[in-house]
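In the previous chapter we treated chains in isolation. Here, by contrast, the input contains two separate entities that must be folded as one system, with a combined length of 879 residues.
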Amino acid sequence: MILGIDAGGTNYDAVAFEDGSVVSAAKRSADTDDGFETLLAEVVEKVDGSGNAEVDRVVVSTTRVLNSAVQNRLPDCTNVVVPGVGLSPELAYSGDENLVADGCVDHRGRVTEPLEIDGEPSHGVVAVTAKFSTRNPSLETEASESLDAPTVALGHESGGALGFPSRAETTVANAKSKPVFESFESSLHDALDETGIDAPVYYLKGDAAMLSRESARTTPAHTLRSGPASSSLGLVALTERYAETPSLTNAVCVDIGGTTTDVTLVKDGFPALVDEVEAGCISTFYDGVVAVNTTAGGDTRLDEDGLTGVRDGPAVAFGGPSPTPTDALHVLGAVSEGDATAAREALSALGDPEQVAEEVVEGFVSAIAESVRSLEGHEDVPGTVVVGGALADALASRLADRLDCISDVIVPQNAAVCGAVGCAVASVSVRTHVHVDTARGEMTVASAGPEKVEEVETGVEYEEDEARELVARETAEATRRAGGDATLDEIEITAFRSFNVVEDGRVVGQITDATARAEPGRRKR
Amino acid sequence: MTLALVYHDDYLLHENTPTHPERRERLTYTMDQLREEGVLDHTDVELVEPEAVTEDEILRVHTPDYVGRLKKMSEEGGGALTVDTHVSEHTWDSARLAAGGVTDAVDRVLKGDNQTSFVMSRPGGHHAFADHAHGFCFTNNTAVALKHAQEVYDLDRILLWDWDAHHFDGTQSVFYDDPSVLTMSTHQTGRTLFPGTGYTDEVGEDEGEGYNVNVPLLPKTGDEGYERVVDEVFEPIARQYDPDLLFVEAGQDNHFTDPITDLGVTAQGYASLMNSAVETAEDVCDGRVVASLAGGYGVEGGLPYTNLAVIASLARLDTSNVREPATYEPPADGPTVDGAVSKVKEKLGDYWEL
């Protein structure tokens, strides 16, 4: 059994998932202190009444890093760069403070000048990025050992792609995200311990693949689009399982949350991706799902002018302080759960309750429709929309009426907990960069987390199929290190090149350089 | 965007022999350096994928007989044109793509899409004559591109500066009688280096007399020597000729680590050469500069840094930190260029005020 947990800003959702089906589901307000514990206890209890169900793994999506980033609540960071020779180090100045250290690694991964750091970081959060560190991480490691900072992120652990300025930027993003992510994940892990769940924990990345707890702690900026990734993945899985649509290839997914609404795009059965995800003051070179976020949700406070974009708490129908779109839907009889009388009373303060409710729901649906239309910049918007979130049933057909481009509306069973389902069906995939230099006798494998540096036999020249197999093997192993279990057949090599190293007129070795990943997908079981 | 950087992965396909100096890693190490520096993501740099030129465009420069021979040899899987110039199955397509890269780079700048352009291509071209080839070159890519430019655009004058360590014998022969392309070569003297030509008295012929400038330099000539040639020969001629376009055939084999030449230019020296070219172009032809990689065989210690230096200069990026790693011992001071400069002044004094 898999536990999927979607920790949004308003609600925590959880599902127990087995054999492709939702076995139990639970929802808790994120406002309460014991949110996780009661949520976990409830979802496990519901499975068979015993609370002793065997959990194979726990997969979590979280908007915590994103929310802190957009609200400018991330800590300041000292960005230590080791630019070596080349363009101006200023291109990599992405910290609140930037410290340039001496030292140089060349394109072959050789340390050509030793590390020397002049100056002390003024912040406790530190990022260290050296040029060509993915070919040789030793200067970054040395720097991190010499700096006595409580939080450190390293460039080679942030990703394997070449691009010193963007790697530095991503490393800063990871460093700044670490404290908030660590506090989130330690509270979750305390709750898991309390509930007696002892299973490996994974986090959903913004590209809708998951990462082990350890790798996520190293690269928490991967979670920036975790929320929309989980709902998108979950709505596809739920549609295929419950909505008599055995294969959903292209669709728009809408997840109506309490504070915000996410619109995502599904292409060829998987969430469509963009590169270089950023939020607030942080930027990364990570992929993330195409997502449009509207600050309008079921709990958005209403005033005389309609939606305010701010959430004070739950709807009045659920004991909250101010009227919301959920209360408006109560007045229109579109939802049943909660206190309808209280909702009507709250709306009366703003005018004729029926009229206010109509206007509010109209405005809410328009805002969502506007997000869907803004996807048009990406590609042709598909004619199918899948709607999730607690208000999906109440709003889906109104939304479809608003959008000429939509012909089919689907609200699959369990749509209210689609994000948690998305977590449960995710698989591990990490973009892996393999560099083999048999002249130097060294191989580096960089993905997310500590890089593998290994000696290889010097002077060897691989045939192309041998080299490709080596790349696939290393990528499968990197996937395992990130918590996955890809077979060689599931490895996709996206870039590959190989050439001889010639010294003094002799071939002394070979360089193979490749990028690969386990094909991201959804688990069928 | 300021700079169009023209590159295609198919430039890696052509190979002479496995240990030949003109190998694919001339480009791969540089491309790694450019990627790692973030040059390809820079807002002032546009990566352009070139298209091959047609056979007809090649025939503007080369004879049908030679083109037929080259094409056939390539189609049949390979052969050798000379002892060091080998044809492989990819050579014909690669040569057309290299000429296409230079042509696209010229188009980019002349259409005004980019201020400057740089072509990261191979095989090179400046030793290719109309009817034969040698020196690792097959088609004269620059000549093909400039003939195209003359046909398509309203250009009166093009200034071509070839700073490769080897004399541009093929290019000189194509434009020898053509005053609309002023060809200038700075190179290690033919007395000590292939192809053995390129003396100051080769000044052009017929209408092209005075429009071919050779500056043969002594072995070990370094940054300072090159700077003097720029100040005393290149710049005055550029200002007097007043071209519509400046083309730089950027051979990176003047670098002190180059294994097959014997000059002493550093990465900083290259940055300053290209800065001079760009600044002169800003004065005389609205900053229109097209540059194309020619030679350069210091694959590890030279090309990544010299290419970065000239590309960054063309994109107007800060080049002050572009240098070789400290593991490379810098060159000693080079010889004076007094002799070469005064020879040029003597031979070309009738045509230009030097």
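Chain B has a mean pLDDT of 96. DSSP finds ten helices and ten strands in chain B. Compare these points with the single-chain example from earlier in the chapter.
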